[in-house]
Amino acid sequence: MQSLTLPFIAIAGLAVLGYFLAKSRALQVSGGDIRKLVSLPSQHALNAVLATIVPAVAAIFLISLYVRLTDGTGSWFFQFVVIGLAVTGLALSLIGIKTETRARTFAERWILGLLIFASTIAILTTIGIVFSMLFETFNFFGQYDWRDFFFSTNWSPNFRGNSDLGIIPLLWGTLYISFIALAFAVPVGLFAAIYLSEYAGPRMRAVAKPAIEVLAGIPTIVYGLFALITVGPFLRDYFAAPMGFGQSASSVMTAGLVMGVMLIPFVSSLSDDIINAVPQAMRDGSLGLGATKSETIRQVVVPAALPGIVGAVLLAASRAIGETMIVVLGAGAAARLSLNPFEAMTTVTVKIVSQLTGDTDFASPETLVAFALGLTLFVITLGLNVLALYIVRKYREQYE
Amino acid sequence: MEDMYHADRAMSTQQDIKIKADKVQVYYADNHAIKDVDVEIADKTVTAFIGPSGCGKSTFLRCLNRMNDTIDICRVEGDITIDGEDIYDPKVDPVQLRAKVGMVFQKPNPFPKSIYDNVAYGPKIHGLARNKAELDEIVEKSLRKAALWNEAKDRLTAPGTGLSGGQQQRLCIARAIATAPEVLLMDEPCSALDPIATAQVEELIDELRQSYSVVIVTHSMQQAARVSQKTAFFHLGNLVEYDDTDKIFTNPEDSRTESYISGRIG
Amino acid sequence: MKTSLLAADARTKKRNAAEARFKAYGFAAIIVAMLALLILLTSVLGNGMSSFRQTYIALDVALPEEKLDKSGVRDLSVMSKVTTIGYAPILRNALLDALAAQGIETELSNKDIGNMISKEAAATVRNKVLANPDLVGQTVSFDVLASGRIDGYFKGRVTMESAALDGNTSPEALMIAQALADAGVMETKFNWNFFVWPDASDQRPEAAGLGVAILGSLYMMIVVLVLALPIGVASSIYLEEFAPKNRWTDLIEVNISNLAAVPSIVYGILGLAIFINFMEFNQSSPLVGGLVLTLMTLPTIIISTRAALKSVPPSIRDAALGVGASKMQSVFHHVLPLAAPGILTGTIIGLAQALGETAPLLLIGMVAFVREYPAAYTPESGLFGEASTALPVQVFNWTQRSDPAFVERASGAIITLLVFLLIMNAVAIYLRRRFERRW
Is the predicted pLDDT of residue A357 greater than 90, yes or no? Predict the structure, then answer.
């Protein structure tokens, strides 16, 4: 890393130098009358700065990548290449300064290139995500049979080897918790959205809307702590223990309910948008026939908004499945296939965290399994997201 | 003798009063939108409300089935009676009122359901049919009355939104008829339609006159002249003149009416 | 079938009852949501407010030369050989003297009395002495931390009953503490050190602070701001103003909306695999944390920036092009400044999200126990390369400790985090109100 300090300083210095040189040279070729120039001196200067920096910095990134891939080390040769590029860029742009040079067009081409590069970072991120997991997942399946991973109902990692790494109990916990969360959040969020957009007066709206938005802005670690210190013990002392369902504060119910609270604003704001997209003419048509407000909502507005609402629920489900902190703190760590909602269970995300924190050995299947879990999680949520976004988009087009 | 005379007159000109408005005022927040409107609307007649944009004709129309209730800032004063019953009486449920006073809107607004479900919606919520057969009958009768049966009978399960604009509007009329209303309010029902569809709907309005009291808001004077027997001219929230359609268009009393009809204001 | 409007028929009554029920469900949903928020906030505030106060003992500590600097030459290298274990008895004696001075009698052993003082206190005094060797031989006034149990007693967490069952304290100790508090020697006061001190070990909850976590979060926010804002704005400008409508830009768009919904833990895996395992950046460093959060925040910033750019009417662009500006100039001179408030608002909201994010940071090792304040730059580890922790991760860390005093610390850390978020969101709302333009 240290080997980068020198090139960076050199590039910065050359860029500053280029700025002033190009400016003065442009003035010089114009003979002091800038009206003779096709491009302004500042545009020549900008061109020189960009010509110095862009190729050299790009070279730094490419070289670092090359060095990492070949497991080599940075050498003076690379530094020479980088600084050489910067000097070349600077020199070429300075030589090119004539009265008729279209420096603005050149500078704008550099900028457009940078803009395009920036927009590809999103793509690179996705590629990075997929490859970072795919690679280690292959390693994992080299050491552990994929059939055991997908179909074994037992999860008991053992750092001395011979682990059972079946994903089914984790998926079960994930789905069970998500189900409870959605069973709580969807009706509450939907009804809240309906009440706010169809019934509430302006004063009610002024209080309730920001309150629900506050819920949306609270970080998940806060919900996690809430599950751990308040909801968990409460459910254990007042429900699970008296009813004989168990003695665990961490439970599917704890995590599910708290996650439900977290999802309320998500469901309600999405539904709110979707319900508002239903044209007023639709409501008028129904009210004009003598339907009550609730009949209008239930039989006209909600059916009309249904695709959008389904999309919103799918997005919420994807959120629930991928949520980590609430389940880490609220659900427990024991992989279990059970129906009792007051029992501690665990999820895919919890296991990703537990397998990748602490002492990790990237050669053992117990660590590598986290990447296979991550990839499974990514594929599931990606599927849900793509489906949801497609449905919502189709729905919006209908009323545009 | 006196009674005979009255009865005779009522028969001949069909002057049974269905709706009576007395000193109606409408406010939107601080804006006085309708001022002192008195009007008597006859049964089995087409009454047209005409006037320049923003004159309050639609607002007044929406008072007749209390659709203005759905707008928070809107306030209505004065008396409106239907068959002698004050529709703004606190005992009146707007839901029941709207079943009795149906409405067709400016833009066709079929629900995103099948044609059948669109028409059956009103009878279902009001409980007008005891079984499926009766419901089928209501749907067919309504579609026939709306002159849509022949076009729609083979595609009752197709979505209502798939029809053409004119068909959609006739579907909305069928939907309104299906609740067995006594009054039909139409808010510029042809403004979103092409001339051919407009002609079909106008023909339909003329037929509906046999069974209902029809009130139609229109910005087309020709349409008012074609379909209505009575015409009311609104201007700046006032009811300027209300008379037989023939009279309004040939020999208006108020100079403002004359200006509007001859195209000088509006 | 003539019915009067004035009397509601049975069916209408039934329908109206259904209407009222439906409305009540909606109202109940709102109440449930508000109640959840209320309980959540009460729980956090109720548990956490006490972490901003801490119990201190005002002691006059005699610093005997024969114990702390036998040579008497005040040579630091020699003096630093006396560990905190050497300082502990000095503090205990000071406390015993204070008890005697107040006339408080007790049957507790000297060891138990000593346990009333935090183990951290000896380190504090030692550091002060090493910083100023001239103190040796004098009697100096120190405000030293009381132990976690004593502190808990004054905050209501520890009671006489619980102390009776507790190996680390006893009802007698609490009674002495009460007597000391009555005499004004022991005082529970506002604890600025909570925001300054680094984390402390499991046995010393009373000394644990947020200093390193706040610093780490700050560094990460700097990285996110410096990277995510320019990249986000640049890619939005390209997509919104320059990109041709084709498959490739469609792909980018779909991709961005999907990235916005990818679970945050997946970004953690990305960070671990790419930045730590492949690029070999330092584990636990704010640089890696910042990079991961940058990638997470980018979609948020891009989506809001594009909305802001879209809201600038085309007439502005036409006007600029009309006077002969290039497309690039029209964007940078006119459109971008007009969209700036919207972009800024979106960026702040994105930063707020990033600040509260925990899961990905766990995977890149920010759960480590760090007591050294990380430097922004060192030649060995580069920019933001020193191990650090972050606010939300510190919360998680403290929830994993066994001493119940850490629950209070975790809640206090959350309050601190929420205050930061509140400030950021308030700024965003202010910007939106102040500069929002309706075209």
Answer: no
Chain C neighbors (3+ CB pairs < 8 Å): A, B
User: How many domains does chain B fold into?
Assistant: 2
* Cβ–Cβ gap B122/A289 under 8 Å: yes
**Contact between A112 and C242 using a beta-carbon 8 Å cutoff:** yes
pLDDT reported for residue C229: 95
Domain of A12?
A: 2-139
Say yes or no: C5 contacts chain A, CB-CB below 8 A: no
Range of the domain at C327: 211-435
- Please list the alpha-helical segments (H only) found in chain A: 5-30, 41-70, 76-95, 103-143, 146-151, 168-194, 202-217, 220-226, 232-235, 252-277, 280-288, 293-296, 302-322, 325-330, 348-356, 365-398
Mutant choice from B62, B65, B109, B117 vs A, greatest count of A C-beta within 10 A: B109
Domain end, chosen from C159, C190, C221, is at C190
Alpha carbon distance, N-terminus to C-terminus of chain A:
53
Say yes or no: C162 and C215 in one domain.
no
Domain count, chain A: 2
- C171 plus C224 within the same structural domain: no
Q: Residue C109 pLDDT more than 70?
A: yes
Do C245 and C370 fall into the same domain? yes
- Domain assignment of residue C201, yes or no: no
Cβ proximity of A272 and A197 under 8 Å: yes
Token digits for C331?
A: 């964007």
Residue-range definition of the domain harbouring residue B143:
110-179
Whether residues A366 and A233 fall in one domain:
yes
C429 and C391, same domain (yes or no): yes
Answer yes or no: pTM beyond 0.80: yes
Closest partner residue to C258 (CB to CB) among A293, A377, A386 is: A386
Among A111, A139, A167, which residue terminates a domain? A139
pLDDT(A332) > 90? no
Task: Tell whether C8 is covered by a domain.
Answer: no
Residue A175: how many other CB atoms lie within 10 Å:
16
Angle, in degrees to the nearest 10, between helices A41-70 and A5-30: 160
What CATH number did the domain enclosing A353 receive? 1.10.3720.10
Q: Which residues of chain A make contact with C279, given a CB cutoff of 8 A? A: 64, 68
Residues A216 and A348 in one domain: yes
Complex prediction ipTM: 0.91
Does residue B210 sit within a domain?
Answer: no
Does residue B143 have a pLDDT over 90?
yes
pLDDT tens digits, one per residue of C203-246: 888 999 999 999 999 999 999 999 999 999 999 999 999 988 88
Separation of CA A232 from chain center: 29
Query: pLDDT of A366-396, one tens digit each?
Result: 889 999 999 999 999 999 999 998 888 888 7
Q: Do B91 and C7 touch (CB under 8 A)?
A: yes
Tens of pLDDT, residue by residue over A77-127, are 778 888 888 899 889 888 888 877 788 888 999 999 999 999 999 999 999
Domain membership flag for residue B102: no
Claim to verify: residue A245 and residue A107 sit in the same structural domain? no
Q: What is the pLDDT of residue A258?
A: 97
Do C23 and A191 touch, CB atoms closer than 8 A?
no
Q: Is B166 on the interface with A (CB under 8 A)?
A: no
- Residue C439 has a pLDDT of 63
Q: Is the pLDDT of residue A242 over 50?
A: yes
Question: Please, which residues have CB within 8 angstroms of residue C232's CB and are 6 or more apart in sequence?
Answer: A118, C297, C298, C301, C302, C305, C347, C350
Instruction: Tell me how many domains chain C contains.
Output: 2
CA distance C162 to A368: 45
Chain B residue with the nearest C-alpha to that of A291: B95
Q: Tell me the pLDDT band of A75, cut-offs 50, 70 and 90.
A: low
